[in-house]
Design the sequence.
């Protein structure tokens, strides 16, 4: 459903997220969700581990959401009830996301996370597919995002909104995830606008800057969620070696295939971690 826009910019992004949250509450009968998951490229299969959703609908039926533009991004919203250590939890799951490279501006990119926080979510889990800059990473390996570098020269925040990002990717939650799987590594994710993959020279630059992972999402959503007070977990699935690392060319099919191959492991990880978060 279209948001009110002026020159493509949402007239009232936070108000639009509040309206979207109210529409989701009406759809699901759930006044407050506890946590949200955004499932990126190749992660959609992982969500099967969460069981059967109580509700599913197309995101574009909700105000501010655009139709999906990429294969591997289904554009559905689901609501789940999940058993937690301290009682049942309600999870809002976004299958797919809008990316900056779609050229629709940054507000549709962060609309799901803003909507999630307005729907009550205290924790936002952002998943993505990424290229491995660190040469020791293997395809199919999940890596926890410890920090990020933004190379897109854009932010979802406007105005004198000097938000601290020191603990953007919650240390508390990373510790919980590592207690579930102590083989997990942490890395620095660099946000690349895309839609081209990077050149080998750009990857070399990113490695020199201290980046381990590269992808085209997550960073604006993390900032938007954090600015509204949610705790953020970011998990990247390494779906390919970044450009120039092996000399192989990159393609989207390989990214999707690596995601499918890892879906069961990623699903089990999420299923194990979620009950421990609250
Ligand atoms: N670069 C940027 N985004 C990506 C990549 C990559 O190598 N793989 C999956 N998403």
Sequence:
């Amino acid at each position: 459903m279209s948001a009110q826009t002026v020159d493509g910019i949402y007239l009232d992004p936070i108000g639009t997220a509040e309206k979207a949250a109210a529409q989701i509450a009406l759809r699901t009968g759930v006044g407050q969700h506890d946590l949200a998951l955004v499932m990126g490229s190749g992660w959609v299969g992982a969500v099967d581990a969460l069981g059967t959703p109580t509700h599913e609908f197309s995101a574009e039926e909700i105000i501010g959401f655009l139709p999906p533009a990429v294969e591997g991004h289904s554009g559905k919203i689901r609501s789940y009830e999940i058993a937690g250590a301290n009682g049942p939890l309600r999870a809002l799951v976004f299958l797919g996301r809008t990316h900056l490279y779609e050229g629709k501006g940054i507000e549709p990119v962060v609309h799901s996370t803003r909507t999630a926080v307005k729907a009550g979510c205290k924790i936002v889990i952002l998943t993505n597919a990424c290229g491995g800059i660190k040469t020791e990473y293997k395809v199919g390996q999940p890596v926890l995002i410890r920090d990020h570098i933004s190379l897109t020269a854009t932010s979802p925040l406007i105005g004198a909104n000097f938000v601290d990002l020191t603990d953007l990717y919650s240390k508390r939650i990373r510790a919980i995830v590592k207690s579930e799987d102590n083989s997990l590594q942490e890395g620095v994710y660099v946000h690349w606008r895309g839609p081209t993959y990077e050149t080998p020279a750009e990857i070399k630059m990113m490695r020199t800057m201290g980046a381990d992972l590269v992808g085209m999402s997550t960073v604006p959503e993390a900032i938007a969620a954090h600015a509204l007070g949610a705790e953020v977990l970011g998990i990247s699935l390494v779906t390919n070696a970044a450009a120039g690392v092996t000399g192989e060319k990159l393609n989207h099919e390989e990214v999707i295939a690596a995601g499918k191959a890892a879906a069961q492991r990623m699903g089990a990880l999420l299923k194990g971690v979620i009950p421990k978060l609250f």
User: Anything to note?
Assistant: The mean pLDDT is 94. The first helix runs from residue 13 to 28.
